[in-house]
Amino acid sequence: MLQMRPGCECCDTDLPAVSTGAWICSFECTFCTACAQGRLGGRCPNCSGALCPRPTREGAALKRSPASPVRVFKPVDG
């Protein structure tokens, strides 16, 4: 199950589980659209994997399986 991390690792923008503007790699590193498509060029700076849109989690599914409260913040130069 996806962790649904709550923020962009690059700029710390909030990315709640219902956000359609979150992008992840296969290791679930999480980025906002601006960082994913801009400074990162569609590649994860941690593993070099492709960034893909993260699905949303809402309603009963979110209640049963809450999003992670753990923020990861590792600003990327560039």
Structure description:
- There is one protein chain.
- 14% of the residues lie in helices and 10% in strands.
- The protein has a single domain (1-58), classed as Herpes Virus-1 (2-Layer Sandwich).
- The relative contact order is 0.31.
- It is largely without helices or strands and 78 residues long.
- β1 (22-24) and β2 (30-32) form a beta hairpin.
State the separation between the terminal residues, measured CA to CA: 32 Å
Architecture, CATH level 2? 2-Layer Sandwich
Briefly note the CATH topology name: Herpes Virus-1
The gross shape turns out to be elongated
Organism: Stenotrophomonas lacuserhaii
Protein name: DUF1272 domain-containing protein
Short overview:
This protein is mostly loops and 78 residues long.
Summarize this structure as a short list of keywords or feature phrases.
elongated, 3-stranded antiparallel beta sheet, DUF1272, little secondary structure, Herpes Virus-1, 78 residues, single chain
Set down the secondary structure blueprint.
Layout: E1 22-24, E2 30-32, H1 33-37, E3 52-53, H2 59-64
Antiparallel strand pairs: 1-2, 1-3
